Task: structure prediction
Amino acid sequence: MSENMRSLRNFFLYKCLFALTFWNHISLSVENELFTSVSNGLPEDGSDKKMKSLPLLYTNSYRSQANFDWVVIENTTESLSLSEITNDNVKKLVALLSNFRQGSRLQNLTLTNVSVDWNDIMEVLQTVWHSSIEYLSISSLTQLSDVKSYNFDYSGTSMKAFTVKKVLITDLYFTQDDLYRIFADMNIAALTIAESEMIHMLCPSSDSPFRYLNFLKNDLTDLLFQNCDKLIQLETLILQKNKFESLSKVSFMTSRMKLLKYLDMSHNLLRNDAADVQCRWAESLTELDLSSNQLMDSVFECLPVNIKKLDLQNNQITSVAKGVADLKSLKELNLASNRLADLPGCSGFASLEFLNIEMNLILTPSADFFQSCPRVRELQAGHNPFKCSCELQDFIRLERQSGGKLFGWPAAYVCEYPEDLRGTQLKDFHLTELACNTTLLLVTALLLTLVLVGVVAFLCIYLDVLWYVRMTWQWTQTKRRAWHNHPEEQESVLQFHAFISYSERDSLWVKNELIPNLEKGEGGIQLCQHERNFIPGKSIVENIINCIEKSYKSIFVLSPNFVQSEWCHYELYFAHHKLFSENSNSLILILLEPISPCIIPARYHKLKALMAKRTYLEWPKERSKHVLFWANLRAAISINLPMADGRRCAETD
Result:
């Protein structure tokens, strides 16, 4: 018997469900698992602050032109989606919904493309309010006319969340409070009015059960909820993409929301007021989104003291002044897409763990960031115009020591300057320690300079460079004076066959042997000797230069005594200078006594070179060889002088 009753009941159930398919544009779905996930969108304890709009649930759609009345005997659906609701069929919708009494399984209702008058939509809402429906979503609602006061009965409802999007009011003349009061006094946990060009919302008439309010993409201003103390249970408030301008007024708006935890004010026109305007935020506020506004550095003077997560992305912040903000509870800070030139310190953010500072104007980040922010676990600093220089080396070294705290490394960290390094990843940029350590560079340069100076000084002393410089200067001055005094005699006239250079200690040999043997007889050789041919009144150096220049040859009597004579060195230097300047072969070396190379001073390198490269006449000790010696010497200096009777180096006939 019971088996027959069960079969009969199922037959009637299927019959009724089949009749439902003839409703114009009706779609039914029985999705227990999906419903379970949707209905859990707002838990009883209100722990989920970010409720999303309910999805439209469509399965199969059936169309029919039949127009007849019907009665729902039993409802087994949990989600119902209806479309194309108009004034022509709204009464049938109300009749349908009136059958879903409290206790029915229908909990989710979605209406799309609704175009009805004010009283009709109010009747639909009133019917839903006293049904089993908990989650109502209306999308694309066009209110044609007759907006007026409506005595709405909020009592005895199962409703938890109401979402309405894209509302268009065609009635141009109506009292706005009549419209807003319906929504403001709803006794539900979550209300969403989005993309509807709403310009205001009233404060509830009594303590409101709202825990979630979402007024996304409307035209709300700073007047919203000012001095409103009825939102005592509100935890989440989303005012994204509206027209708020004053950050201080926003703070005062929240000051009476005792349980507010999350506030989204992104994509508005917010600016911080003058410094003398105080801000007063809800003490319970822990998460604040102020991204995509017009906030500047002063925003840190107007922030909730207990904030834990702060989003200031895409504003106009150039620096985070030390000591301005004291946000001891702040753990997450987003400063991406601002105008910061360096990493902010953590003097006011003692608990900071996550920092996003991407896409700013940071050229060389501070290397001591992790020292000042020891609790930071992740730093996002990529996509900045890094200047690859010595200053950046410390930051790159910091990455190696941080243990992977730099998010996006290495792909997001690329050189922007200089031009030749643009596009190079920071991990591939290297400079030597010497190039970047200024102190080390200065010390190295100083040491090299000292070494160079020491080497030059040693060479100058060892080679007697200063002496050669002085001699060259004197020779130049002598030539200059000769040019000014006797410019017509610049072409020197040879007056002597040879100039004799010797040490005073060898003067006996010169006077007793050299001079007599060369000057005696016919065609005698005229020799220039300093004792008889130097002109009184002139300097010794000038006399030496004049005698060398007026002599065809220069005879140097070499001996250990010659090496020790300073004036002999002068004479050798000037004669050697003439040798190279006139490209002549005018030097005759006579080795009177053997000279050991070790006794020749280092500065006499010219003498060493001459003795090594040139042939010299050695004075023989055997008298039998003297005749040959004098013959060779005469042959070396034999020349017909144009003037042979001059007696002084500077005189001419």
Summary: Residues 438-462 form the longest helix (25 residues). The chain has five domains: 74-195, 197-271+280-291, 318-431, 433-467, 496-636. Residues 8-75, 643-648 have pLDDT under 50 and may be disordered. Residues 433-467 form one domain.
